Amino acid sequence: xxxxxxxxxxxxxxxxxxxxxxxxxxxxxxxxxxxxxxxxxxxxxxxxxxxxxxxxxxxxxxxxxxxxxxxxxxxxxxxxxxxxxxxxxxxxxxxxxxxxxxxxxxxxxxxxxxxxxxxxxxxxxxxxxxxxxxxxxxxxxxxxxxxxxxxxxxxxxxxxxxxxxxxxxxxxxxxxxxxxxxxxxxxxxxxxxxxxxxxxxxxxxxxxxxxxxxxxxxxxxxxxxxxxxxxxxxx
Length: 235
Known about the structure:
The chain is α+β, with helices and mostly antiparallel strands. The chain is 34% helix and 24% strand.
């Protein structure tokens, strides 16, 4: 990897917690439980699998008893979700990853521990979609692969709205990721952890691999020592 922990350290800085995104309305706990009960009922007696393609791989909030590599056809990773908090700020918005339509996404399917899976679903909903504006961002998708489950829950698939910036050129995404930081960390840190953990599973996303190189180069350029305008001293 071109992007290293040294690069990530250069992007981290103290930032205040700016609170929820403007216009977001928190869901009440009973609403989260209602969604959790619906998803648990939809899973039925079959094992419940979760498809992780980003931060849930390296920062899970569930108890899994099995994991398998899997592919989601018709979806791809995309840094398309503009954020002004968490890993961004109003002064320097960041970009977070979601699944957008088209292509293929290789990730990891996790089977949730069965005896308390309802509570685990609730915990994940509280982490991922705790605002009304995000409630449609959890869905079932089909998976493919040797031994992979036929379907799994996934978060942040098919996001819509004015904060979605689709099909940004990779150099533009890299410029944002190299600069954005919030109270939870930087966007470069998010990318670094995602690529590194995908590599551990033998997964190399072509776009992310190119993106991490561009972000490393952008950070190097931002933190390069200024040139001496006088040039070398003459003898």
